[in-house]
Write a structure and sequence with these properties.
22 helices; binds zinc ion; alpha+beta; single chain
């Protein structure tokens, strides 16, 4: 046990509603089991990428611990099943070695792979597992269902750039895939990466008082993503393709769970892949790591379209996360509930918003109705209704609730100091909070003591009380992402602030796929405004490996402390010209080399005032990682 025990308030909150436990789910996660890995998966350097043995406590049949929400516990025990599974004749899945699933479809000569996981090591181990049990077949096609890294990042574990270049393996993706795959993480990448540690909890101990699940799967693997660009883009719904003798019918679903996503059916197998548009959990309308808010209304409508297109002919439905469902009637009921869930959240949030309720009031008032509570796949093990209601509100009306008292609030330290003073000092504030803790009013405790921690982050009594309250909230949370966030907050309050370090190098293969415009955008959000007052420069760029395209010539400059970039021409008054390859620019951004080194080698040629280059690149902030979240 790494955390504190559950209080009696938490124990009584964690009473399960036994009626909802569908025994069929346990059969579904076991159905077609072929074999499992006996140990963890290591990367080339011998480090553990993922290790299911850490989660043995979810499989030993023990009673539900009182430190885990009983519904989340049950969901976690289902996600903890791992191995190779036969979904139907000709289709296999490897589940439980990554947060996502990889699916293998038998073609005439080889495998069609759907979603090759997050990182090369887990994809490679999955390919080896199916090879061991079903025999070797070459991978002749890879389908990316959508633009999130846990669905393409392991592509080098099942094929190679050489095989793709030689036409031995096709890469099929929805329209706009490449742009979105790179785009989602460009501007806010470092902030999202840090916030994601709260969402997924990879630094928490695997333990009934710590990490138990990630909702969409057991846990996230530790390894960099790779990317091979698609060779075939699916551009319209109804598009049909025969790949290695297998017929596939596609449905594009942009602006749903991901900006570029698609469902598709395999008529010869009576099988339907719902990508990540349907899972065995309520999904996020915005993840707590942060992202652009998703379109719940479109999401629901695309599930409705999938029902119209495919449901009548579907004997088995599988998805990019969790487990499949079998039988025409069962699949139809499942899809209907999923469709209605997203529509209900959208409509009932906006109904209340249009009557003047603000996001926190809507989140408090909305309760999942019995229709959704009765099924585990419509409960919030990943997304949470509290967060999703706010997401819908934010999409249409922004974070601002229209009350001018909230228009220009004091930031946390300034407000915290004043709240402590208002309470009559730190001791009085903490005494009040302790009383509320004893009565189980944990949401109020974390609001009040948060002010204390921001007023004085060195006050260990305040930190410990805040950690204790966050921990009990974590134990009670049905959503794995809420649980992980609460427990991460508790951990950092107890163990001290995280170390602020220089950000990890971005995954090289992801950088390779960036456009020049995207590279310049990432530099723009790192410019130290305070150091570039009065600086006005323009730099002409010639990318020799982009000759003949609009990317051959660029102007990059600073004006009024802001970066600007113009494609397709040069500025006759520019102070300096730079000639290099786009490839070299990407190497420099990946921190594999520097401008200075390359100028020395002659691979980057400057003509004019080198100081103009320095005015931009000498004033770029370091990428930070490990910034504080639960304290100043
Ligand atoms: Zn995913």
């Amino acid at each position: 046990m790494v955390g504190k025990p559950a209080t009696h308030h938490t124990r009584s909150s964690n009473q399960p509603d036994d009626r909802i436990f569908d025994p069929a789910d346990l059969e579904r996660v076991r159905r077609g089991f072929v074999g499992a890995l006996s140990g963890g998966i290591l990367d080339d350097a011998g480090r553990h990428v993922i290790d299911p043995r850490r989660y043995e406590f979810l499989r030993d049949g023990r009673d539900v611990p009182d430190t885990v929400n009983p519904h989340l516990w049950r969901h976690a025990t289902l996600n903890a099943h791992h191995g190779l599974f036969e979904v139907c004749d000709g289709i296999w899945q490897v589940r439980g070695y990554d947060i996502s699933n990889v699916t293998f479809i038998r073609g005439a000569t080889g495998w069609i792979v759907v979603d090759p996981l997050t990182t090369m090591a887990t994809a490679k181990a999955s390919y080896e597992l199916i090879t061991e049990h079903v025999g070797h077949r070459p991978v002749v096609a890879v389908i990316y269902t959508h633009s999130h890294a846990d669905h393409f990042g392991g592509v080098f574990g099942v094929t190679s750039q050489a095989d793709v270049d030689a036409g031995r393996c096709a890469i099929i993706a929805p329209e706009g895939f490449l742009h979105e795959a790179i785009g989602e993480n460009i501007i806010a990448g470092p902030a999202m990466a840090r916030r994601a540690t709260y969402q997924f909890g990879p630094l928490l101990e695997a333990d009934p008082t710590g990490h138990v699940d990630c909702g969409l799967g057991n846990s996230v693997p530790m390894g960099p993503p790779g990317l091979i660009a698609p060779t075939i883009e699916v551009t319209k719904t109804g598009e049909e393709m025969t790949v290695d003798g297998v017929r596939i019918v596609f449905q594009l679903t942009p602006e749903t769970e991901a900006p570029a996503e698609m469902n598709f059916s395999f008529p010869d197998f009576a099988a339907l892949c719902m990508a990540e548009n349907c899972s065995h959990t309520m999904h996020n309308l915005v993840p707590i790591r942060g992202a652009l808010v998703r379109n719940a209304l479109q999401w629901s409508k695309y599930i409705n379209e999938a029902i119209e297109l495919f449901a009548a002919d579907t004997q088995v439905m599988f998805a990019s996360h969790n487990w499949p469902r079998w039988g025409v009637a069962d699949v139809a009921e499942y899809l209907t509930l999923q469709r209605d869930l997203y529509r209900w959240m959208h409509d009932q949030t906006m109904r209340r918003a249009n009557r003047g309720l603000v996001a926190t009031e809507i989140a408090e008032e909305l309760q999942l109705p019995p229709e959704f509570l009765a099924h585990e796949h419509t409960r919030g093990f990943y997304g949470d209704l509290v967060h999703n209601a706010k997401a819908v509100y934010q999409r249409y009306l922004s974070w601002y609730d229209a009350n001018p008292a909230n228009l220009h609030k004091l930031p946390p330290v300034e407000a915290g100091t004043r709240y402590v003073e208002l309470a009559g000092g730190m001791d009085r504030l903490l005494a009040h909070a302790r009383e509320r803790f004893d009565s189980g009013d944990y949401r109020w405790v974390v609001e009040v003591v948060n002010h204390a921690v921001f007023a004085d982050p060195t006050n260990q009594a305040a930190r410990n009380l805040q950690a204790d309250a966050l921990e009990q909230l974590g134990y009670q949370a049905e959503s794995s992402t809420f649980r992980n966030a609460y427990l991460m907050g508790a951990k950092e309050l107890r163990e001290g602030p995280p170390k602020l370090t220089q950000g990890a190098r971005r995954a090289r293969d992801m950088i390779r796929a960036m456009t020049i415009e995207q590279v310049f955008d990432t530099i723009g959000v790192r410019i130290k405004s305070e150091s570039v007052g009065g600086v006005r420069v323009a730099v002409n760029w010639t990318f020799t490996d982009m000759a003949g395209t609009r990317d051959e010539r660029w102007i990059l400059g600073l004006s009024n402390r802001a970066l600007f970039a113009t494609q397709g021409r040069h500025d006759p008054h520019a102070q300096v010209s730079v000639t290099m390859t786009r490839d070299m620019l990407l190497n420099i951004v990946a921190q594999e080399t520097t401008f200075l080194d390359e100028i020395g080698k002659g691979t980057v040629v400057l003509d004019g005032d080198a100081g103009a280059m320095l005015a931009i690149f000498g004033n770029v902030d370091e990428i930070a990682a490990g910034f504080a979240i639960v304290e100043p």
